[in-house]
Amino acid sequence: MLSLIDAVSPTDSSVPLRIAERLASTFLSLARKPFAALDVDTFAHRGHCQVAWRKTPPPAETITWTGLEHDTLWRSVATGLADVTWQNHKFVLASFEWREGFNSTTQTWVMGPDENAIDQFALTVYRVTNVPHEAVLVFSGGCWSEKPDLYRSIQSSSFGDLIFEPKLIHEMRREFKAFLTMRGQYDALGLPWRRGALFIGPPGNGKTQCLRALARELALPTLYVQSLKAEYQREDAMIASVFKRARQLQPCLLIFEDLDALITPTNRSVFLNQMDGFERNVGLIVVGTTNHPEQLDASMLDRPSRFDRKYHFPLPTAALRARYVEIWRGKLRGRVTISAATATKIVEGSDGFSFAYLQELFISALLRIAEGSDRDLDRSLSECLVVLREQMKTGRDLLYSGSVQSEPDDDGQ
Predict the structure, then answer these.
(1) Alpha carbon 92 to chain centroid, angstroms
(2) Are 224 and 258 in contact (CB under 8 A)?
(3) With contact defined as beta carbons under 8 Å apart, do 342 and 332 qualify?
(4) Beta strands 50-53 and 73-86: pairing type?
(5) Span 366-371, mean pLDDT?
(6) 277-296 as b/e: b if 16+ CB within 10 A
(7) Over the stretch 82-140, which tens digit does the pLDDT of each residue have?
(8) Once rounded to an integer, what is the mean pLDDT over residues 345-366?
(9) Beta bridge partners of residue 301, listed in sequence order
(10) What phi, psi does 327 have (nearest 5°)?
(11) How many Å separate Cα 132 from the centre of its chain?
């Protein structure tokens, strides 16, 4: 009789067959089912079950440092046996990891007396671990990773802390809130329940800060695309992977920051197809930001079914700059003083400044005070204003000569 293991040996295809055969002979009395990407460690870490990895046979484990923010050790097991307790059920879990070409393959076998209980356990693990837990999902290098620090920065953001034209904020909040409450009306009219929005404007004018405030207000799972490049994989496959993951989390917020850099002529058709092709993007809110709308193809910029709403973030007006200066005067009151005359001088002399440049103005002046090179904040601000204006002029000259000097990265709010 032909042995399947012999037929596919010595290729990688024989590995799962040899695993199945050995488990069948070792755990004769238990039902057995194999699952892909069953993250039982995370499920247990969130308090939903208990996992005890057996010491015999010794597991292939890796202990990693979680970084300064948490400063703990995280233990993960690639290959090993564990006893699992979930609700009133007890299972034996067998985890295996092996290489297939350039890729790593993981398979988790769950064994127990009841096949239905095994299925319910696996389904619960998938459902719970599919949703990021107090973290933003960031896509880079071809894979997703959870970023709790980004989630916390979102939770500390608020529209009340930002300086924008009231009409912009009012329209944005109204339209997104209305969209989330109108699923039934969309379905009744046969309309696809999805939304696309584009944030447009020069760098440093609050697009990122506004995105964070919006993410907090919507309170949806948030996915952030940092890069579409990955070793050994094409960008069109990465785009498909991004949208596939977003559809698993719907309703959710999917962010493409610096869209003009992420979407290129070579991957644009796949991106457009994922946005409004045959796939059903039910519940997806896709938000892109761009500093350079002139670099976006008209099929993205002008076709409503992709980015239905466009919100513009221009350089701050004199009135907004005045509000910004007053916020700084309030922050510093009681420590150092900014006179009314200097405040007016800053507002009038900062025409063309982004919020990021305004922030740099105050930071530079305060650092001079802290270093002891100047004790008069009014004078320090006036001198730094002249320096920054000259830097802006030099930057524009470099831009038109073919070189580029970017503005400070932070939005300044």
Answers:
(1) 35
(2) no
(3) no
(4) antiparallel
(5) 89
(6) eeeebebbbbbbbbbeeeeb
(7) 999 999 999 999 999 988 777 788 999 999 999 999 999 999 999 999 999 999 999 99
(8) 94
(9) none
(10) -60, -45
(11) 11
CA atoms within 13 A of residue 225's CA, in its CB half-sphere: 30
Q: H or E stretch including 388?
A: helix 377-401
- Do residues 299 and 276 make contact, with C-beta atoms less than 8 angstroms apart? no
H helix or E strand, kind and range, residue 153: helix 148-155
More confident site: 136 or 3: 136
pTM: 0.83
- Quickly list DSSP for 318-387: HHHHHHHHHHHHHHHTTTS---HHHHHHHHHHTTT--HHHHHHHHHHHHHHHHHTS-S-HHHHHHHHHHH
CB-hemisphere CA count at 13 Å for 313? Answer: 29
Q: For tokens 């929005």, what's the residue? A: 197
Provide the CA 292 distance to its chain's centre, in angstroms: 21
Inter-CA distances, 398 with 244, 289, 353, 361, 394, Å = 42, 24, 17, 21, 6
Q: What is the rounded CA–CA span in Å between residue 136 and residue 25?
A: 43
Closest CA to 281 of 308, 248, 310: 248
pLDDT tops 80 at residue 395: no
pLDDT average, residue stretch 66-85: 86
3-state DSSP assignment of residue 174: helix
What distance lies between CA 391 and its chain's CA centroid? 33
Note the pLDDT tens digit of each residue in 261-298: 999 989 999 999 898 765 678 999 999 999 999 888 88
The whole-angstrom distance between residue 383's C-alpha and the CA centroid of its chain comes to 39
**Distance from the first to the final alpha carbon of the chain:** 73
- Cα-flanking dihedrals φ and ψ of residue 21, to 5°? -65, -45
